[in-house]
Design goal:
Layout lengths: L7 H10 L4 H5 L10 H17 L1 H4 L9 H6 L3 H8 L4 E6 L6 H9 E8 L2 H13 L5 E5 L2 H8 L5 E4 L2 E2 L13 E2 L2 H8 L5 E6 L5 H7 L3 E9 L2 E10 L7 E7 L4 E7 L14 E5 L1 H6 L2 H8 L2 E2 L7 E3 L7 E11 L2 H7 L4 E7 L5 H7 L3 E12 L5 E8 L1
Parallel strand pairs: 1-2, 1-4, 2-3, 4-7, 8-10, 16-17
Antiparallel strand pairs: 5-6, 7-9, 8-9, 10-11, 12-14, 12-15, 13-14, 15-18, 17-18
């Protein structure tokens, strides 16, 4: 970490230029020749990235940022707040500390947090920022976390790991064994130092694949923010042999909704032709794959085994979007020309042979408006279009 970046005139320059085009800034003459211009421009770019994602850091003076990619890959404050509520106790060790967003929030529920970070530069940045943020219960330990565990040789109430994909794993199917640290290989070693482990993975990881690589998985939290799945949180408890609980969590500015089920549950869905109301699960529920459980839990019917749309005659509270069905059309040329061609509407496809882009192009549909068109397949395997109004 370059301490010169903390100098008042440089910090003021960074603040004043946040939000300006980086390409233009990069061509400017460096007004601070004793600091590399690339470093200053990076601070401006990273601070802009933090504006929405990390408002506490953005609004704190003299924060030093790592490379912009670290900001892009770090947890948002919203996600960090959620996972902090899953832990409690005296101590937690984070084996992959990074920029320290998660640890800042862990420290609100845990009395002592150890932040391990392989990159000494990033460890120094996190330590600097924790002081500015007024946190004195986080200990920053640079170096390899495996060696740190051996050296400290103690028990923690919780262990947290956010493994990163190795650069040579690009293009491969996402597997935990292709990440650093290699959690499946080290898991029994980790359980020597904590009975409770939380692992954060990207949404790309298939849940079945993760369960095949891990053991002792007690719960999996699928965390979506503004209907985009941001991370999977795997909660492991030493010796646990039961069926994992799946919690599909959807966080918006208005509310947080949670759909809870068990992995591999034996729920059986009911099916029906479209009724008065239509339901589309949120992205967290979609990631869970618990489509039959949605039908049984909410007592609503599926349109088709593979459509993942639901229907009912009575309006219910639902963890996703709700619509009133205004018109049901067979997917036939004459019907589409009369009711859809050239219109403005929001198109969604579910279990349909064409993409949204193909449908919009073929039928000259403009995006937007108050009508929602679902191109899908019903229980009779007929291709249909549901014209709906959002509730």
């Amino acid at each position: 970490m370059n301490p010169k970046l903390s100098e008042p005139e440089i910090q003021q320059f960074i603040i004043e230029n946040t939000g300006k085009p980086i390409a233009k800034l990069a061509l400017m003459k460096n007004p601070f020749p004793y600091v590399e211009w690339r470093e200053i421009v990076n601070q401006i770019a990273a601070r802009e990235k933090a504006k929405e994602k990390l408002p506490t850091w953005f609004n704190t003076n003299n924060i030093i940022y790592p490379e912009k990619i670290s900001i892009e890959q770090t947890s948002s404050e919203t996600a960090a707040q959620y996972k902090a509520n899953l832990v409690s106790g005296e101590s937690l060790i984070d084996l992959t500390g990074g920029f320290g967003i998660d640890d800042y929030y862990f420290a609100k529920n845990i009395n002592h947090v150890s932040h391990c970070e392989l990159n000494p530069e990033l460890s120094a940045v996190a330590s600097h920022n924790f002081k500015l943020l007024g946190v004195d219960t986080i200990e920053c330990i640079p170096g390899d976390s495996t060696e740190t565990l051996k050296l400290l040789d103690r028990q923690w109430d919780w262990m947290y790991i956010d493994p990163s994909r190795r650069s040579d794993a690009k293009g491969k199917v996402f597997l935990l064994k292709d990440c650093l640290p290699n959690v499946p290989e080290l898991l029994d070693f980790y359980f020597k130092y904590s009975k409770n482990i939380m692992i954060k993975t990207a949404p790309l990881l298939d849940i079945s694949a993760g369960l095949s690589e891990l053991h002792s998985v007690k719960a999996i939290h699928i965390v979506a923010i503004h209907n985009e799945v941001k991370e999977l949180l795997w909660i492991l408890e030493k010796g646990y042999t039961g069926t994992p609980v799946i919690e599909a969590v959807s966080i918006t500015k208005e509310e947080t909704s949670t759909f809870v089920t068990q992995w591999d549950n034996d729920a059986e869905a009911t099916y029906a032709l479209p009724k008065k109301y239509l339901y589309e699960p949120n992205s967290a529920v979609m990631k869970s794959g618990a489509f039959d459980a949605v039908s049984t839990h909410f007592k609503i019917d599926k349109l088709h085994k593979h459509s993942q749309l639901y229907t009912s005659d009575d309006l219910i509270a639902f963890t996703g979007r709700r619509f009133m069905v205004k018109k049901i059309l067979p997917y036939q040329k004459a019907e589409i020309k009369q009711h859809i061609e050239g219109c403005k509407m929001n198109v969604t496809v579910r279990n349909f042979p064409q993409t949204v882009a193909e449908i919009q192009k073929k039928w000259k549909i403009k995006d937007g408006g108050d009508t929602y068109a679902f191109f899908t397949t019903n229980i009779q395997n007929d291709k249909i279009v549901l014209l709906c109004a959002k509730i």
